[in-house]
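[job 0412] stage=complex_fold ligand=thymidine-5'-phosphate status=START
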Amino acid sequence: MFITLEGPEGSGKTSHVPYLVEYLREKGYAVFPTREPGGTSIGEQIREVLHSLKNTEMHPRTETLLYQAARSQFVEQVVRPRLALGEIVLSDRYADSTIAYQGYGHQQDLEQVRVLVKYATGGLAPDLTILLDVDVEIGIGRKTKSQEWNRLDAYTLEFHKRVRAGYLDMVKQEPKRWVVVDAGREWRSVQEELRETIIKKLAWP
Ligand code: TMP
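[job 0412] stage=complex_fold status=DONE, emitting structure tokens
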């Protein structure tokens, strides 16, 4: 089972992953947590280039291609082998981030971006994608307070609003794959809803 977590900045995805993993392991599931961009040595190196605040001259097409380069490695080195072992792969971001950020955010041609994503993933789509949805101003406010400010966080508020709207559009286009969780609530309630959503999917795939 391939499960991905998506969301705009400051949705809190990353803080939920370790607790979800612990919970699922206690229930007896084999879970492999990972993240994009990254998850492989090559991917982590590409992440450095993508997120460095020094690389302000990066063109959106360069950005799009670098994410796909990290992704193809991630799919072949991590996701497919783990799925073949029968494990649950739980990824903090995946291909939908490219559609949301590089497609909707940068307003690049969505069809062209989708073709690139399909090439990078070899067509591998998640079984379940959870959108941790949060108001953009609240999310950016949370991120500003954290230590993890990156080059993409520094894009305009309008950019991040398009990203969120893009996610909500994707949910409408593929309602069977997506579940939306309101991440504006207190952390504990969000964690509980995430657990219930995943357990339900595991019980009725
Ligand atoms: P995060 O791990 O702190 O969420 O940072 C990942 C950043 O990378 C976030 O700003 C979203 C961005 N991103 C894209 O723009 N496109 C992608 O395909 C992926 C995986 C991430």
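The CA atoms of residues 27 and 199 lie 10 Å apart.
[job 0412] exit 0
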